[in-house]
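Let's study a protein:

___
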Amino acid sequence: MYRSLSFGITANGLNCEPVIIMKAFVTIFFFFPLIVSAQDITGVWTGYLRTPGSKLDYELAISEGDKKLSGYSLIIYPKDGIENIGIKKAKIKQGKKDILFEDGDLVYDNFSSPPIRMKMFGNLSLIRKDTLMILQGSFSTRSLDFRDTRTYSGEIYLQKTGRPISSKLLVTLDEINFPHNLSFVTPVNKKKKVITQPSSNLKKNVTPVVTMNTKSKTDRKIEKIRDIVFSNDSLLLSFYDNGTIDGDTVSITLNGKILVEKLGLTANAFKILIPVIAKPGDSLMLVMHAESLGLIPPNTGLLIIQDGATRHEIRFEGDLQKSSAIILRKKR
């Protein structure tokens, strides 16, 4: 079930007597809500909505264009072990001391039942704790169906993430090829979309990755990082760079056979649908081998495995000495 969202973010002005003790000043400086208009709030905020009976993952992307704010929201309702995801457009207006938020059209959902048409209103404060930026406050809802008198209320807590491209919201928008045009996401030039060559072939003014004392892929240590139980006869694999796009390349094998060789990881998904013919209880090993470490070692990536309606997110890393492996086991 997905509910429309509307937020008001406020920060009260600060009017205090001269500081008596330094400790009191430090406490006020770091924890008092900030003047919103002076802060850059664009980016992805991740956290949760909490009510007395539940806690739901929630994300908000805020973008700026033509001196206006807009964005998208994502909420997840777990049901029978399946993540029910809903994404909506967001209309955002920033004042001197507050932010008004109202979601718009539903752009994606995988709900197993029709969503309840509800609108959510929030009152959030912007707080900075050292380098951490937080949106925190309360919310309440009302139904858009006059016959439905149910209401909900609770707490909202969001943190600004430093890795927006690996957030569930942006990953999902990319998976469905939705043109979000978010201002904080650098567009990828299609002509230079994938770096498939070792880093020694990068521009001359970039220091190439050192590859001395490397092991062949068959001699590297294999480190199992996850066990996945699957049900379907095919799996959709989506690969991304998990951080700064710096030229990481990987080769991917399934039970020792090459699926993809020297794949350049970017902010855009590389997708491959693999048939999996296996008996209940049988297992296969999926291995990601680093071909280069990019400009910022180690080699890191994000893999999303879609097993029908079930979705698994796995973050992996490797170097020229070891590789990450995932065991895929057919459900009994």
User: Anything to note?
Assistant: The helical segments are 22-31, 168-175. The longest helix spans residues 22-31.
